[in-house]
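Risk register update: the risk of archive-format incompatibility is retired. Evidence:
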Amino acid sequence: MTVHSPDRPLAPAGLLTATRRAVVFDLDGVIVDSFAVMREAFAVAYAEVVGDGPAPFEEYVRHQGRYFPDIMRIMGLPLEMEEPFVRESYRLAHRVEVFDGVLELLLTLRVRGLRLAVATGKAGDRARSLLDGLGLLPFFAHVIGSDEVPRPKPAPDIVRRALELLDVPPEEAIMVGDAPTDLASARDAGVASAAALWVGPDEEELLGAGPDAVLRRPCDLLALCPAVPGD
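Archived output:
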């Protein structure tokens, strides 16, 4: 049975009543809107390393959630694109914005006693730098990058590492992501997954990946994360 109303996420009834002590978030497309910066950084890197012609950014976006070098391998592009892409991403970081409603969500989850982590396709240092610049880093007990685990998404390693650091069992956590790789990583780690649709991803593809819950606004997550018992 599913439960759905304007004030509730689309989720199985059991997921709405589960005891939950932790939330693991993806970063880009969930917490921050970085796609304009990504597009510009990718175009510069492509021009510097590959040369003339349109940069295939739309294809790059379809692989979001993966580690940048892995995306380059999948797309058949030079790994040398990473250096200018990272350089431009740092240079343009001041243009990255936090999605509406995310700050309020993080504040409420903290008040309710949930532990929060980020598990991102970005390198860890870059993710922490970005969150620090936005004033969000203190909300997260841990921020884990794809360069800090043996296998990046869609492997479960990064979610498992988050759970280990948070000291929370899989059944008491939920992963929020905007890409099929996020959902696959959560599923194989034994963690419930929630699809974030507020950035406007390929909804059909994301829903086809079988999330346990569907969130159309950041605040929808609150129905799945009541106050931690005893806190």
